[in-house]
Amino acid sequence: MAPFELAEPQSLAEAFRLLQDEGARPMSGGTSLMLMMKAGVLRPTRLVNLRRLGFSDIRVSGGNLVVGAMVSLRQLEKSPQVRSGWPVIARTLRTLANVRVRNVATLGGALAHGDPHMDLPPLLSALGATATISGPGGQRQVPVESLYAGYLETTLKRGELITEVQVPALGGRRAAYLKCTTRSADDWPAVGVAVVLDGEKPTIVVGAATDRPTRLASPEAVETLAIEGDLHGSAAYKKHLLRVYVKRAIHEARNSGR
Fold first, then answer.
1. CA dihedral defined by 83, 203, 151, 73, rounded to 10 degrees?
2. What's the fold here for domain 58-167?
3. Is 185 exposed, middle or buried (0-12, 13-18, 19+ CB in 10 A)?
């Protein structure tokens, strides 16, 4: 691994300044970042550790779930507020990597990584979640699904950081997330399907089969979806999986409140 400078800013303003250099990269949990650095895929000259900036609270405000970007995935999984009001998130996290990873990985890092195989982006997109993005130019709020531009590409500008995520109240909606892995249950998914039912109208967002979380207009839209094959399965195999898992996820969502 190439040598790098490690910086630990005490404020957002200091973090923004440190991130302006071409070779600077933010680090929250660092679980994916370190793997990419060890593999030589990334060679940053400066890592900006965000652990001293706060953004580590989980709260309910106005009926919405508000989660700081530095909250670990394990904290999110075990949160009483999440388990009672948004149980689909807690269920999804139980098979996201393993508990050692979830103890370290953060919500902001998981969303900013941009890997289409991540479990949370399609689920949070289907739930209508928004992200607060802070940068040198101020703050903005965007839907989670608009964070992604392609494989490992996001719409975050240089120096911008995800600081918070807001998830609307489920209310009478019912939700499910299912994934199919080719090895262990906590492996990267070959396909992931998030479904949120408002009455009988489904919102469907798929992951791992395309280069970013993709919303389907209807279950039948799987047939026209441009699917990308990878180490987890060919395009033809993933299309077959989606035909099955979209139906299963809708069924699971219908029964989630029982």
1. 0
2. 3.30.465
3. exposed
Q: What CATH number should be reported for the domain whose range is 5-48?
A: 3.30.43
- Would you list the domain boundaries of the chain? 5-48, 58-167, 174-254
CB distance 7 to 44 below 8 Å: no
Q: Spelled out in words, what is the top-level CATH class assigned to the domain 174-254?
A: alpha beta
pLDDT, tens digit, for every residue of 164-214? 999 999 999 999 999 999 888 778 899 999 999 999 899 999 999 999 999
Are 160 and 133 in contact, with CB atoms under 8 Å apart? yes
Burial of 17 (0-12, 13-18, 19+ CB in 10 A): middle
CB 185 within 8 A of CB 83: no
pLDDT tens per residue, range 39-50:
888 999 999 999
Beta-carbon contacts of 43 under 8 Å, excluding residues fewer than 6 positions away, are 2, 23, 37
The pair phi, psi for residue 31, each rounded to 5°, is: -65, -45
Q: What value, to the nearest 5°, has the Cα angle with vertex 194 and ends 139 and 196?
A: 85
H helix intervals, the chain = 12-18, 31-38, 73-78, 80-85, 87-93, 99-104, 107-112, 120-126, 235-254
Task: Indicate whether this model's pTM tops 0.85.
Answer: yes
